[in-house]
Amino acid sequence: MPCSLYQTTTRQIFHHNIYNNSAVKELGILLDRLNTGRDNAYKSKAKKITMKAIEIKKLSKWYGSARGVEDLSFSVEKGEIFGYLGPNGSGKTTTIRCLMGLLRPTGGNCLVSGERIVPGRATQHTNIGYLPGEFRIWPGLTARRSLAILARLGNGKNISKRQEELAERLDLNLDRRVHTLSKGNRQKVGVLYAFQHQPEVLILDEPTIGLDPLVRQVVLELIREAAHAGSTILLSSHDLSEVAAVCGRAAILREGRLNELAPISKIVQQGRKRLKVWFAEGTQVPSLPVDKLAGVSLIQQEQETLHLAYQGSIDPVLKWLAQYPVNRISTPQTSLEEAFIQYYNKNQPLGVTKHLDSELKEASNEQ
Predict the structure, then answer these.
(1) pLDDT at 356 exceeding the cut of 70
(2) What does each C-alpha distance from 274 to 101, 145, 312, 332 come to in angstroms?
């Protein structure tokens, strides 16, 4: 299929509003042509257990002199839920758009189910469920009609039952026109679009944004169920508690470069740990000898308690505490959010420890 035809179709779907029936019908014809004549040889290849579901190889994308991503490499296994983390502007959306063939990389390449992504050719789109960070569809159509059109981008045959099931779980009325839906309900339409054809690969950019807590849990359940059924999920999110809840591994981006790639448990464990100490009643809380305890800092001191953060072994801290009458000690679990702050602020010249300790203090007050 000509590149220009696909680009036109994609641009209409994600960046323009179509109101009249003739334009919608024309788009349906384009999508039929998009799916007709596809070479199905790659489908058998995609089923090989040893094949990576997603591969990013030395990917770079520059916007003039501005860096999107640079020399980025990682892979995602089949059936894995993979977290993709980073602040705004770190390169997450650039990576995803290159992976979807919506951007042409400056260098490197992306593969889905072993097939190299060719920009503008809808590579593997029949097997991908994609939810962009800003999901926009035709405001004048009902959610049901819009989803029926979008379904034809993927393996969208015989999905009515699946649509109804998802709509019920998400508490979404499919027969309302899109422009009458709240922001949260429009996001539900986007979630339904990504999941409705039960794709082999899900690429989700902020899937729970704008949703209430109950619906967020439903979306996380859908992600877990998809992985259990063998789908692979790339999850980009600013909600680190969600990433920690469903992902086994995560990548952390910083200024377009890979800052860390590790299991969630390892990312958390490598961060600074916390220790809260309760002294015996009437004991004067000792001052922390920071000059003798390397890597230890004071988060909070109260009448009979000390809350500390430490890096490395806890042994020197315990030996120091052994001099005093201690009632009990607890070790609050470090959250992924705290670990992320440490990774992202690594090698910053000023204010890092102070900033992190303030974050830790807020977390300790919540416990």
Answers:
(1) no
(2) 44, 53, 11, 6
Looking at residue 232, its pLDDT comes to: 96
Phi first, then psi: give them for residue 293, nearest 5 degrees: -115, 90
222 and 120 within one domain: yes
The alpha-helical segments, DSSP class H, found in 64-119 are 92-99
Write the pLDDT tens digit of every residue in 265-274. 887 776 677 8
CATH code of 323's domain: 3.30.70
Segment 204-231 mean pLDDT:
94
Question: Which pair of tokens denotes residue 68?
Answer: 């999107």
- What is the domain range of residue 141? 3-264
C-alpha Rg value of the chain to the nearest Å: 25
Output phi, psi for 211, to 5 deg: -95, 150
Q: Is 130 in the same domain as 224?
A: yes
Number of domains into which the chain is organized: 2
**Which residues is 111 bridged to in the sheet?**
55, 116
Angle (CA) 39-124-184 rounded to 5° is 145
The pTM for the full model equals 0.71
Does residue 246 have a pLDDT over 70?
yes
- Does the structure show a pLDDT above 70 at 150? yes
Give mean pLDDT, residues 179-198: 94
Among candidate residues 264, 285, 309, the one where a domain is terminated:
264
Of 312, 220, 225, 207, the residue nearest 270 (C-alpha): 312
Do residues 215 and 350 share a domain? Answer: no
Span 198-204, average pLDDT: 94
For residue 50, name the pLDDT band (cuts at 50, 70, 90).
Answer: low
Tokens in use for 226? 């998809």
Could you give the CA distance from residue 272 to residue 249 in angstroms, rounded to a whole number? 19
- Strands of 77-141 (E only): list them: 81-85, 107-112, 115-116, 128-131
Q: Measured between alpha carbons, how far apart are the two ends of the chain, in Å?
A: 57
Backbone φ and ψ for 259, nearest 5 degrees, come out as -95, -30
What's the CATH number where 111 sits? 3.40.50.300
Residue 293 structure tokens: 């305890």
